[in-house]
Give the backbone structure.
Amino acid sequence: MRVLRLVAVSYWLHLKMIAVSVFEGVFQVIWPIYFATVAFLLYGRSDEPGVLVYAGLGAAVMGIWSVVTTTASGLLQRERWLGTLELLVASPTRFALVLVPITTAMASLGLFSLVSTLLWAWLLFGITVPVASPLAFVVSILVSVFSVALLGFLLSVAVVRYRTAWAMGNLLEYPGWLLCGFLVPLTLFPSWVSWISYALPPTWGMQAIRASAHGESPWLDVVMCLLVGLVYGVVGALLSETVLRSARRHATLSLT
Amino acid sequence: MTSLRIFFVGGLISFRALFNWLSPWIYVPSLLVAPIVQILLFAYMGRAAGQESDAFYVIGNAVQYSAIPCLFAMANTVAGERWTQTLGIVLVTPANRVALFLGRSLPVVVNGFIVSMFSLVVGGLLLGVRFPAASWLPLALIVGIAAVSCTGLGLANAALGLRVRETAVMSNVLFGLLLIFSGANIPVDALPGWMESVSRWLPLTHAIEAAREVAAGATLAAVSGLIGRELMLGVVYGAAGLVALRLLEAEGRRRATLEIQ
């Protein structure tokens, strides 16, 4: 019960903190819309039927990836600058339980981007995304958010020794957009690239979202998205303990 | 002589001090790898949509990406000084403001040129795009002019930095507008009418168009009109930026807001 309360309070607190930041707001809502606009203009010139719906759905979801990669990588550095990292580490709670709600709050902010991109597509480009199975659609989105949050958790601890981790996070934004099937079908890539794509939870999440929108069964993709995300979460939890031990031993926890 | 020293020495020192992306840990992922992935992203989108050639996206995005170093570095000439609490010290000096800010622009132009040329070469190699050997020199010239022109917009962006605290957001907003309107990924004449009109007044649009024509075999003389318009826009934005810097500096002094973080 204490754990659930911790997770819920931490999630809500960080969601409020992130949501009021102009910088985060612009990044998470407006930034993907720029790319969505280019995608709509570009795909709008194609004669293929249904291609704009494909682009609309993909562009809407890619904000979830953006928000996590661009902010999670700098998560620990930010706590360090705020002077709260030592307090978080010193608390009796497992470090993973402190970080996962934060990255989940970050990923949830991607939902703003999703809704705003769908509205943008509808209002300016007349693109309506038909959703055949609303329940499956919502479940697919929520599972995608959670899985991407777990990936963000691993990212945040993996780059903790890298003082300019934000640059690494920013770098991951475009490759994710390219490789996860948001705007480019995976069939266009060489087969070895597909292996990378399927190791990333948003690829499965995007497939689940598209399947549920088209009225097909998304459940296998939903389960795979969750499983891949959990693998990232477990690796992140193990890594976070190692990283913390190392930082404590070398007294580098608060070094900016 | 003092103005020349401020222009060259001051500009270089300021660039090294304030453009913290010069660390290879930031420079390589942000300014060398990111533009390549942007090129790949749009080239593959183009392939998926059956629109344009790979060369179209390589040139468009390589030139457009110079906006990142040019806009961000220029904004940092103000925001960076404010962050290190030296803005007041800089602005209290009697230094010639034109030499001061243009000096800070010169390394930015060189950096923007390097980023774009690197993207052009590596992006082309990765996608198997070959440009005629004779086109490389004119391409380099056009890319250099694009960097000048975008740095002109960067000067205006820097001026806004005297009033807007979130200069990174401002720079991203401008970068996004250039991505949509400059014709980097959609031919300007394929944009809706009002967007096409806007794009003609933005930096990079004419340079991208000229670079594509040169890569397709046109001579430099054939695209001189486009190059001239690009250069003119850069000068206009730069001049507007210098005037705005002067006005907003005076405003900042009057309202005592120069150093509010």
Observations:
- The longest helix of chain A spans residues 95-125.
- Chain A has eleven helices and no strands.
- Residues 2-249 of chain A form one domain.
